Amino acid sequence: MSKLPESLTMTKAMAADLQKTYKHLHAHPELSMQENQTADYLAGRLEALGLEVFRCGGTGVVGVLRNGDGPVIGFRADTDGLPVLEDTGLEYASKDTGHLEDGTEVPVMHACGHDTHMATALKTAELYAQGTDDWAGTIVFILQPGKEVGAGAKAMVEDGLWQ
Question: What is the pLDDT of residues 46-65, one digit of tens each?
Fold first, then answer.
């Protein structure tokens, strides 16, 4: 097995930043199709890396990292939380609430890994943005809202994701 180029290898500092990002996202989940603060956070982080960023499907975010001729690949991550009360006791546990369509206020938590998906997407974007000598092509980071209610992908496609 060949070793990754150094520019695509995560350092301890990068791993600590990944954990910090994960904890932030875990502590601040938002319900499906209501991921406004999450989308702002993700778009800001991708823009800071120099990616072309656009909003799509309401609260969806797309970041495009171009690096010359080569294949085009996609990296998709879900962004929504669930209407679940977190009872983990973690210092970064979600205390946030959201509102269902009928107006009912509910606790919200990342109970199935979307916080990890987003943190991993951001760190992957960072590694590839900083390591452009080691690859060529285009990576499209698709940060999809509303997975839990089946609305986000449809909204993104209808909003022109693939144009």
Answer: 999 999 999 999 999 999 99
**SS3 readout for 31-86:** CCCCCHHHHHHHHHHHHHCCCEEEEECCCEEEEEEEECCCCEEEEEEECCCECCCC
Task: Report whether 32 contacts 60 (CB < 8 A).
Answer: no
How confident is the model at residue 25, as a pLDDT?
A: 98
Please tell me the pTM assigned to this model: 0.92
- From the DSSP assignment, how many helices (H) and strands (E) are in the chain? 4, 6
How many domains does the structure of the chain reveal?
A: 1
**Token pair 């951001």: residue:** 122
| Percentage, residues of the chain above pLDDT 70 | 94
Asked if residue 97 belongs to a domain, the reply is yes
Helix (H) or strand (E) holding 98: strand 97-99
